[in-house]
Description:
Low-confidence stretches: none
Number of domains: 2
CATH superfamily of the largest domain: Glycerate kinase, MOFRL-like N-terminal domain
Strand order of the largest sheet: 3-2-1-4-5-6
Strand content: 15-25%
CATH architecture of the largest domain: 3-Layer(aba) Sandwich
Order of helices and strands: HHEHEEHEHHHHEHHEHEHEHEEHHHEE
Mean pLDDT: 96
Distance between the termini: 7 Å
CATH topology of the largest domain: Rossmann fold
Number of helices: 16
Amino acid sequence: MTPQRVRELLDGSFAAALAAADPLRIVPNHLPAPPKGRTLVVGAGKAAAAMALAVEQHWPAAAPLEGLVITRYRHGLLTNRITVIEAGHPVPDAAGEQAAAEILKKVKALTPQDLLLVLVSGGGSSLLSLPAEGITMADLKTVTQQLLMSGAPIQAMNTVRKHLSAIQGGRLAAASRAPILALVISDVAGDDPTHIASGPSVPDPTSYQDAINILERHGVQAPPAIAAHLARGSHGEIAETPKPGDRVFAKTENRVIATAQQSLQAAAEFFRAHGITPAILGDSVTGEAREVAKVYGALAREIAQRGTPWPAPVALISGGECTVTVRSKGRGGRCAEFLLSLAIDLDGAHGIHALACDTDGIDGSENNAGAVISPDTLHRAAPKNVNASALLDRNDAYSFFEATGDLVVTGPTRTNVNDYRVILVT
């Protein structure tokens, strides 16, 4: 199989995974009938603009519709009836804070005859940031930045965020007198809506003490105002987030409409149609990206050398969200770090290629969705004086793949079902 053909297959499988999570295709099938009153659309996440546009395109022209959604900078789209605001991600900012406050104000004005349509997708935790009373945006930024660098899993990060928020952790639902339908595009392992955008319309089973324990476990030094807020909450001086069984959720439906598993299945069908056996290794893979890569490298070598547990050609497909514990000031996200570690582990093994990309089109904080590797990756890097191991130690996988010309750049995809990884053994 030629290198060009391999690259076509890798890229084609990623395109199939993205198509399976396209809000413009998915959202229309889940829209409810208009209520007697008006419909308010609110939401946050990397897919928020595309989801809002899908609602507009398929909502009856005569039915009242308005709204406000928040998405990441450069992820907006032109809409007519629903306002799209761009704000900071992964670190929250004032634009998100102001928009979240406006959303909460609009929700509180609804009546029982109205409908609240909530559009939720990955990235919403930082975008829908409205700090609880006594907490400043500066304090929230500080904690968020520390958590991002600590290697804490997203579920742990969101437990903390819920207990520092005036709108997340089910508080949006508690503010509404109208029935609620939340359409959710999942970017978390397990697809539990409580962890997606920190669950603005979902019961929260976690506590202030859980949040305190997470900060301690990951060595996060919270600003005094946040430490005091969490301590007061753990002592019962501040009301907890609404819990499972709370009557405020009696009129709320949270419906997950797109998942990583659906995208992996679409990629598997793509490979099957091209005569390649797909093997889905899971949609909820977690752990340090560089360590996960070593496990997958061992499996790929076993297939290439012994034909077990599957004979080549085979595509090893996985999703989920690995983590990177940042120890230096390099550039790159978890997908690039996974691939650089995999390339080092494979050390030029014949017939093994791979792609890893974030389905939102942004791996970490750079402009790439991810990257690709081939058996000659390390060989091509040598003349460019690029030391793979040294760059991995510095969390600088982006610089490595920039030098080798192996970055995958898609621009914002306006969806997000987390990472897509495929190792193709030919």
